[in-house]
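#lab-general

N.A. 3:47 PM
ok so I finally got the sequence cleaned up, no stray characters, all 705 residues accounted for. can someone with queue access submit it? mine expired

B.Y. 3:52 PM
send it over

N.A. 3:53 PM
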Amino acid sequence: MSSHLTWYLHRLRAMSGQELLWRSGRLRQRLLARPVSWESTEAALFGRSRPDWVALLRDFRAGAGRPVILDRARAARIADTDPAAAAAVIAAAERVLGGQVRFFGYPPARLGPLIDWNRDPLAEIRWPSVSSERIDHRTTTGDPKWIWELNRLQHLPWLAQAWLFTGEERFAEAAFDHLDSWIEQQPPGAGIAWRGAFECGIRSISVGFALQGLRDAPGLTPERYGRYLTLLGESARRCWVERSLFSSANNHLIGELTGLATVAILFPELPAAPVWQRDAPALLVEHADRQLLPDGAGAEQAIAYQLFTVELLALVYALLALKYEPPQRLGAAIARSSRFLALLVGDADPPPRFGDDDGGFALRLGPEEIRTVRDHLGIADAVVPDPAAARVGTATITALWLRDALGSAVAPATEPAPSGYAPDGGMVVLRSGRRRVLMDVGPLGYLSIAAHGHADALSVTLALDGAEVIGDPGTASYYGHPRWRVAHRSTRAHPTVTVDEVDQSVVGGPFLWSAHARVRVRAVDPLRGIVDAEHDGYHRLEAPVTHRRWLIAPPDSGPIAVVDQLSGSGIHSARVSWPLHPALTADPVASGHLVHRDGDPVVALAYGATVPLMVDQVRGDETEQLGWWSERLEAREPAWLIGARCSGAAPFVIVTVLGPVASREVLVTRTDEAIRARWRTGATAYSLVIDPRRDGAVLLSTPDR
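B.Y. 4:20 PM
back already:
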């Protein structure tokens, strides 16, 4: 059976009967749909009588009946407040005028003076100008992410801001020329750019905000305004009619509804705008509460997608706040997300990494290539002031625009909680001094496909002195390198335990898990630094086993102990993995590893088990695609993946001790009543006793003191 057919079978199994009926009806509508032109689209949007584009453009330039964020007076204040930020945007616009773009980790590409919006110059292919429904982006040789990014037109707000900052017509004319050529080459529903309502939504945000910034430009004629409004109206219509539902209603639905709301609020002259203004925010409020859990964690179990989703919500909240009273539930969702993210990063910790990260932007006002958690918190605080976000957020030009438009004051910062537990998202944060330990005890991901989750249940990461030591190795690829995609989502690549060389959850496709490991949290005690949890991902083995993990990270900054028990029956192999940041080196030592940065010791790991154990390490392996670290999509670099491996009859136990200096041999014993471990770190002897019959029953002591 082909992999493509296998994917379809797995995808069908992930759908309910109601979803199958809905998708069948949509497919039938698409097959019966006839090609449309811009002329017929305009008639469908506005009726038979041609709109008075002169009058509509006059109202648009006056800001009549709509909120305004990008304008000349505000640009002057921002350039005066942060001239470096304005200069960076102008430099980005200059690069666009030079025909240079760069997306993800791919090298820069030259587009030439006349842009072909269907051509990928890196892959040297041209996507066909046929009905978007006939294009299967999963089976082509090019990377659809690259061509989608180009067609999101997120460079247009740079050109609009450059015109506002400088008054130079060349920036405005370039923006109009790009829009004109795009409309000419991409008739409604034709080409890869129209493949999915999500792309329509993100593109609409870019075009809508750019046009607002360019509304006083002489080149914006009534004829052009008519074409642009038709583009936005058709895009908004598709965002509603073709919106993602059921098992696909993740960040894509938020993007579609945000695009719809943005068009409706900024362009109320569209006949359907009043209905869209009513329906889109209402649904956004509902799905914000689903996708941002009560503790503020993102339901997709992917930090990058939480930032993306919240910034989409923040855009709609800001527009509504400038027009009338915004929904309180929407503001509450943004605020609780800010508090969760602030807990993770603290004052000086590196950004956490888990789940997928495609580097997506809701609205690209600044030229930064990566949206950091702290950048995001600065934006969120500009829209919904929050003390936690105010303390750790940084000011970007996006935050400057929004704060000036809303007139929001900076919230008084408060001391962050050193440790905490988000039970809905399943994230434990344990801090001691300059040490942060995170443990993931959450679900695989959101909805039945868990598209952006990784098989990383019970992962433990470590940051020391503001730098990442043990972490998630990143996403690496979506479409460009399929083998990278498989490896970087796998259990083996994450700081947890792999049993019998298989993943905890079952892969059904690049954005689909057909079976999900389920985590049971037994005990979490942030004050004592203890976590006790297990998952059932290996119950599917012929001889089922349960992986149970205890994390002991005392608040006194002593050594950390991670205890892994595999209970069940049969003979099994196990690997405990610790992926290191690429700036670190690792040397095997007696019963463990010693990790250095620039020649200085950072952390030592010592292993022990109730079965024979061997130290294990790999770096930059091209065969298994292990030992790599990815900071951006479609890019990676070698990094040490260290750990230990063993095999034996279940039940058995593996103990990893992480400390500032090398620990001597870790001795481990197990009975039904107790797991015991002893080791010596420096001059101090440690004794660990766990009663597996009781949840969280852990005692770590130093008997020689």
